[in-house]
Amino acid sequence: MAEFGAIPAPALAGMAGWEAVVAWEQEPGLVTWRLTAPGGEVRYLKLRRSSVEPGLEDERARMEWAAGSLPVPRVLDHGSQDGTDWLLTAALPGLDATRDPLQADPARLVPLLAAGLRRVHALPRERCPFDWTLARALPVARHRVAAGLVRPADLHEDHGPLTAGEALARLEALLPAGEDLVVCHGDYCFPNVVLADGAVCGYVDLGGLGVADRWWDLAVATWSVTWNVGPGWEDLFLQSYGVERDARRMALYRLLHDLLP
Asked: Which residues of the chain have pLDDT under 70?
């Protein structure tokens, strides 16, 4: 049983007899349940405390916007009760990149993931209503640091032993003169990319989707490559995507990733 409370009854409407198993628990205030019907249908129910940002309403809006262009989970229901928000979605076919058999073959998997990111970045940014540029994201990071909301444990070991204030100062020193804006996934990492039959067939966890510098996604994606298949594969990801390494922007967006919720 997840640490974060029980499932609100309205979130399970019409699903009597379904099995509920925790699929992911990022923190006590954010839990995803895997719901399986007696007949085998699978759905996912994400719960989040209403006070936690970004909220599930933000993710729902982004998922429904992206559904016209990308294979993303279909939203079945959403709501809120007693301080808990929920988002119910249909399951996508396939396995996420942490479970796909191709994880044992990084030379094949890494270029597939790079191509999957290119597909997201090819979306027309002028039609995207969600803004996650530095002008929008930086004030959030500054506020979180000033309010003491960033704990040392929130910083990746790559950033240790920096304090939150030192991490913010380093980030400010890395700010670029401009941004290479595209529609970004917002958290493009192995668990959020679904594969089937040797190809990317779906994208999940879209709460951070919005217009941002493409290096926001590239920084996190290459980080995830190293975490999941080991060092030495970042350059293949960047080469397959079609860019040369920009160490400054990668450092900037990895710091920003750690300072945001």
From this structure: 1-5, 27-28
